[in-house]
Design brief:
Elements lengths: L1 H58 L4 E6 L4 E4 L1 H6 L11 H4 L3 H12 L4 E7 L5 E11 L5 E10 L1 H36 L6 H33 L7 E4 H11 L1 H6 L3 E5 L4 E4 L1 H17 L6 E9 L3 E8 L21 H6 L6 H11 L4 E5 L5 E8 L16
Parallel strand pairs: 7-9
Antiparallel strand pairs: 1-2, 1-5, 3-4, 4-5, 6-8, 9-10, 10-12, 11-12
Helix pairs in contact: 5-6, 6-11, 7-9, 9-11
Bound molecules: adenosine-5'-diphosphate.
Adenosine-5'-diphosphate (ADP) binds next to helix 9 and helix 11.
């Protein structure tokens, strides 16, 4: 009896032990699965964080960055790259040719296939915009030396080159403007020294020419200093309430004699208004515009000065002449440094092409705008706005068509 009972007990014990063992095994399996999932989740999280950090890093770059795989499919294109080429869709996984129809860039990739080093090229593109780019490319290899892809970095040189061109043009213009009066002065001095000084009539004439050209040089240097001061942004405007009529009366009276020399009549239609301006700078604006209106105005013509209230607490001041006017295509350009419609006629009048640029800087420094309207053959009108000095009498008309 003992043995059968023991056998049954042993079998039962075995079954219980097996059940416990299988249960434990399941538990251990479930536990390790959980641990593996946690591990994978953590890895995924880390990978995601790394990817976010990488994207943030690439997107913060000023240069365009493009990472391609071995089949020239886009893996990474950062924000600057998309902005540079005006790409608005996600181009990842697309081939470079699909994403960017630029054969110049494809050519760089072709070169990189054979030359395994870093390659630098300047690219001039006309589409989608006029761009001058410096492209640096490098092939990527794995530890076994297999080609894994390409990285391309695009530096936008367009603005730098534009600034460089502007600087060169400025230096060339300044040199030219300085050279002309200087050569004249030198030429006349030499002629005087060679004997002309002994003839009082000739020497007086020559000395007058020398004086005129020296004055032209002085004005040019003064204008250049003013421009450089205004462009540096260091100029502090002493803006205060000013009686507009007091200033316009003064400028018109200062220009009475050159106006009379050309038989030009001033028409003064400036009402009593108070502007907020720097008196000396405002006078410079008005002088430059009045000087031009007389210089380019018709002999025996009229120069009219007007002012009226404009929207947004501004005063609009205008000065018109009835001279030959300005061609439509030049209306905006005349505010550029050294731009003149007719260089010869401007020089003949003693101009240097800086007056309108000074006007623009001063007006903009006051928070105003300046523009010109003209019809060829029918004179020109220059408008500018300045802030109002204080609330005004409503009887003064408010300009409805202030541009
Ligand atoms: P400038 O010293 O040559 O007068 P500005 O900067 O004062 O230079 O003016 C730039 C150019 O704008 C002038 O050379 C001239 O061609 C044109 N301009 C300015 N004012 C007038 C005007 N009232 N009538 C016709 N052309 C003008």
């Amino acid at each position: 009896m003992f043995w059968p009972i023991l056998t049954v007990l042993l079998v039962l014990g075995g079954i219980v032990l097996q059940a416990w063992w299988f249960g434990r095994l399941r538990e251990v399996r479930a536990e390790s699965k959980r641990e593996i999932r946690n591990l994978l989740d953590a890895q995924e999280q880390t990978a995601l964080e790394l990817q976010t950090q990488q994207e943030a890093l690439f997107d913060s770059m000023a240069e365009g960055l493009l990472l391609l795989d071995e089949n020239r499919r886009v893996r990474i294109a950062n924000r600057s790259f998309s902005q540079l080429f005006e790409i608005t869709t996600d181009i990842r996984s697309r081939t470079l040719l699909e994403a960017l129809r630029l054969h110049e860039v494809i050519e760089i990739l072709d070169v990189l296939d054979t030359h395994k080093q870093v390659l630098g090229r300047e690219l001039k593109l006309s589409h989608p915009n006029e761009l001058l780019l410096q492209v640096n490319g490098s092939a990527i290899f794995d530890a076994a030396g297999r080609r894994r892809g390409t990285v391309l970095v695009f530096h936008n040189l367009t603005r730098v080159k534009q600034l460089e061109r502007t600087r060169q043009e400025f230096v060339a213009n300044v040199s030219h403007e300085l050279r002309t009066p200087l050569s004249l002065i030198k030429g006349y001095v030499e002629t005087l020294l060679e004997g002309a000084k002994d003839n009082p009539e000739i020497s007086t004439k020559f000395l007058q020419t020398i004086d005129r050209n020296a004055e032209r040089l002085r004005l040019l240097i003064e204008d250049l200093l003013t421009i450089s001061e205004l462009e540096s942004g260091r100029v502090k405007l002493n803006q205060q309430p000013l009686q507009l009529r007091v200033l316009t009366d003064k400028v018109l009276s200062d220009f009475r004699s050159p106006a009379e020399a050309k038989n030009i009549t001033f028409i003064d239609e400036v009402p009593d208004l108070t502007i907020s301006a720097d008196a000396a700078r405002f006078e410079q604006v008005l002088c430059n515009l009045t000087d031009n209106a007389i210089k380019y105005g018709r002999n025996g013509g009229k120069v009219t000065l007007r002012a009226r209230l404009a929207a947004a607490e501004q005063v609009e001041i205008s000065i018109s002449d009835d001279g030959p006017g300005i061609p439509r295509e030049a209306l905006e350009r005349i505010f550029e440094r050294f731009y003149r419609v007719d260089k010869a006629s401007s020089r003949e009048q003693g101009g240097n092409g800086l007056g309108m640029s000074i006007v623009k800087h001063i007006v903009q420094g006051h928070g105003g705008r300046v523009w010109a309207k003209s019809e060829l053959g029918n004179g020109a009108t220059f408008f500018f706005t300045l802030p109002l000095g204080h609330p005004v009498d409503q009887q003064i008309p408010v300009a409805s068509n202030a541009e």
